[in-house]
Amino acid sequence: MDRELIPHILRLLQGPEEPSRNRDFDLFEDTVDGRALRYYKLLRSLEEEMAAAGSRGVRVSRSSDGQIEIRLENPVLRYTRSCFLPSELFACLSERLSRRGCRLNAALL
Known about the structure:
Layout: H1 6-14, H2 25-29, H3 31-53, E1 58-62, E2 68-74, E3 79-85, H4 87-99
Antiparallel strand pairs: 1-2, 2-3
């Protein structure tokens, strides 16, 4: 992920309402904001999946390059989802999950 995208993604995550490509077509037509919107949708999907899982099957660790690795596992379905996030995005995701009653490993922040 390009570091230049992080402020754009955070702006979308912290905005007062859900962004809409149709409503704000001119904004998201730009390549940087368009890419940020795609990452925003991926992070929202990850947030929903983590909220549904609670602490079951969620492992969080710091990778050797300093990013945060999130692994979601469901052995019944033989499903694993792995994501690597910069610490700024992980902090925002953790805050959003905390507001929903989910707790992650705060020692990684």
